[in-house]
Each structure stands twice: as structure tokens, then as C-alpha cells.
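Run folding on both entries below.
>entry_1
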Amino acid sequence: MKRIAFLAALLLVTIGSFAQDGKSIYQKYSDAENVSAVYISPAMFRLIGKLPEITADTEDGKVDLTPVISTLTGMYVIDSHNQSINSALASEVKKFITSGKYELLMEAKDNGQTMRMYTLGDEKIVNSFVMLALENDETTFICIDGKMNRKDLEKVLAEQMK
């Protein structure tokens, strides 16, 4: 019986070590040559969330970003021009999206370039937002974690897509 319990515990630890998240992908590629990387911590989002109003200019005026920003807990950005890691990065992001049961929010294709946005959450709350953009010589990965109100996030994205 002890042997079975030990094997089960070992299996759970092994499975957990293969799990990917935005942070682990960021850590793996952020120091590579020809890779730009940005990490924004929960502390920074708390600080930004205390500002009165944060807006983005759109063609139709301004959209208030404060309701979304104040709910964020982390942001990871990798922009790679390193041909030797672009396909590996894209492959890891795709595994991450599949394993996390992300839902495709949007896909855009143009002249061999592809951009996909995914969300993870339920009808009211988005726990994670992922964007993967693939171009000829560039791969971009963005992962934003938090507890974002889906309606607020969709409003911001809709305004920015106009």
C-alpha cells in the first residue's frame, strides 16, 4: 500500500513539473539573444490601480482601462526575433493554451502572419488572457493574469480593434 501511495505521489509531482504557465515560458526565453522581454508584477498593477483614471485613445474617443488594470496580477511579454527559438516558443505556447483549456477569442491571418487571442475563465471572469502572434521572423507571446471582468475586457478589446 505504501508503494502505491508513493508512486501516486511521484506521478502527481512529475505531472506538475510539466505544467506550463506564462511565468515559466517567460523565464525560459526572456534571457535569450534577440528576445525582448517584459514582466509586470502584481505590485506594479496595485500601484497603477491606485491612479485615478487610465485611458487609451481610440478613433471614437477614449476608453477607460482602470477597471481592467486594477484586477491584474501579472503580465509576461516575449517578443522574439531569434529564428532558432521561434518555433519552440510557439510550440510551448500552443501546449500551454491546450493544457489550460483556453478558449479562442479571436484569430486574424494576413500574408502568412497569424495572431490569436485566447481567454481562460467563465462567463463573468477572465482569469488569463493569452495572445500569440506569428510573423515571418518574429514570434510574440503575451500572457496577462488576473480576475478581469469579462465585459470590461471585451469592451477594451473591442475599442482597440476598431
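>entry_2
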Amino acid sequence: MAPKFDESDFIDTDYQAAQTQTAVSLNPPAAASGALNRLLTREELEAKVSETHQRLAELKRAQEHLERERTALEEARRRRVELQTGREEMIQHLARGIGLLEKAETDARTSAEQMAKTLAALREALAHVQGIHEESWAPENWNVELTRALTTIENSRMEWNQARLKWPLLEGENAAPNAQEKSATQGRWWEEMSFSQLCRLGFALTWPVALVGLLLLGGLLFLRFR
């Protein structure tokens, strides 16, 4: 005889129990939901407000800290740019200045060496010229000594002319006072003239004016007594 099955035999009671428990956990009873959404008490509200103020103060302190860090970073960046710009500028200026001074130093050293050579040559020429003592020449060698002395004078003149061409300072020491004296003399030319010369010069400059004045006076008298 075949067994008989009830509808309850095809229902999984364990699965239904699990579904029921899940539904309860997702949808709490009305009493529990009402407990969560109930109005807060005064003490709880004050605690919430105090907690909110505390959190706002912490956020403000954090903001101020971040502002100080931002300011410090911007200052560091500005100083870094200033350092880089100043370093490049000073490297350029210093390198250019060193190059110019090195060239000037080389030119000055070369000029000093050439001047020292010229100075030594002039001193040697001066010593040779000062060493000429014709009173000590013997009569039998007088012509020979004279030729030597003239040769010494000519060599000294050549050294002097070369020094004048190479160093304008030697020419300027004599030329500048002469030019100033000439200019001053030309500016005060009347001081060298005598009184009679000044009178003749004054008459030569004023007689045309006097003649015109006499002619005008004569014309006025003629018209008056006509």
C-alpha cells in the first residue's frame, strides 16, 4: 500500500524560520523603532551641542594649522625663487666683473712692464748723457770723444722720441701748460697793449659811430634853421 504524504511534508520548516528571523531583524517591531526615533532629552541635547561645538573647535584649530602650513610653504617657495634668481643674477654679474677686471689687470700689467722697460732705457740714456765730460778729453783724442758724445746724444734723443710716442703722458706734461698759457694769453690780449695803442684802437672802433652822430646832428640843425 502506497504511503500517504501531507502538505506539511513538502514545507521546509527550517528555511521558513530563517526567513522569519531575517525579516524581524530588517523590520524591527514598532516599539523598537519608536524607541530610536523618540525625542531627545534636554541633557542629551546639551551633550550633543557641546560635542558639536567641540568638534567645530577642533576643525577650526585644524584649519588654522593648515593655514599656517600654507603660509610657511608659500614663504619657503618665495624665498626659494628669490635664491635661484639672486644666484643666477650674481653669477652673471660676478663672472662678467671678474672677466673685465682680469683683462684690465692683464693690460695694466703689460703696460707696467712696458713702462718699466721705458723707464730703465731713459735712466740708462740719462746716465750716458750725464757721463759726458768734455773737460777730461785729451787733445789728441778730442775728435773721437766728440763723435762718441754726439752718438750718445743722438741715441738718447731716439730713446726720448720713442718714449714720447709710446707714452702720451710725457708729451702732455709740456704740452698742457703751453696750451693753457696760450689760451690764457689769447683771452687777455689787451693786457699786452700800451695806453696809446688802446686809445688808437678805441678811436678806430668808435669813429664810425661818431661820424653818423655828427651827420644826424647836422641834418637836424639844417632842417631847423631852414
